Amino acid sequence: MPVKNEGEIEMADQNDQNNNLQQVSGQGSGEAGEQRGGNGSPGPVPYERFRQVNDELKTVKEQLTQLQQAQRTAADQKLADEKKWEELARQREAELKAEKQARLRLEVASKKGLPVDLAGRLQGETAEDMEKDAEAILQFLKPASGPGVPPAGKGSSPAPLDFSKMSAAEIREKAKGKAVGELVK
């Protein structure tokens, strides 16, 4: 057997592949001889068969494109849904945290005797922090002990003067710049 170079080996492999292809596609060995050209390549394909195969190829490519587009659309929709659910979960977690903080503020305000209206002003993340803040606020709310201005009586005007216990000089002193109607009520 003579030794073949690489080009001859490749050509022999191609011829074997062409023969296998023709046998699989339904062409018998008798037809293969008729359609082969002089150099062993397949002969011309009838136009009808060419058009049929070409149309099938186009149809399959269109179907593939449609399937790929449907997959992309489904994947995009799934991703959008996941993002929507993640955002909703984050939002619910934030609402839950805010509600827990509000409840904790009310509990601390109630425990420390702070008015409910001021419970929203408590600051801190933990109950201990809020209790310290409540104590600081309560220091400002407690009335100062010691002497101060006595509370006003009923109404804003001073008590009427009792002329029976006053001398004439005292009456003149109190009456300076005032009308008689203001002195006697």
Report on this structure.
- The protein is an all-alpha fold and 185 residues long.
- Helix content is 64%, strand content 0%.
- The protein has a domain of 95 residues.
- Helix 3 crosses helix 4.
- The relative contact order is 0.03.
- About 6% of the residues have low confidence.
Secondary structure elements and their pairing?
Layout: H1 6-24, H2 29-35, H3 47-112, H4 127-141, H5 168-175, H6 180-183
Q: Characterize the main sheet.
A: none
Choose one word for the global shape.
rod-shaped
Binned, the helix content reads 55-70%
List the helices and strands in order.
Answer: HHHHHH
Low-pLDDT segments, ≥5 res: 23-34
Annotation, overall tally of beta strands? 0
Q: What value does the Rg take, in angstroms?
A: 52 Å
Compute the average pLDDT. Answer: 78
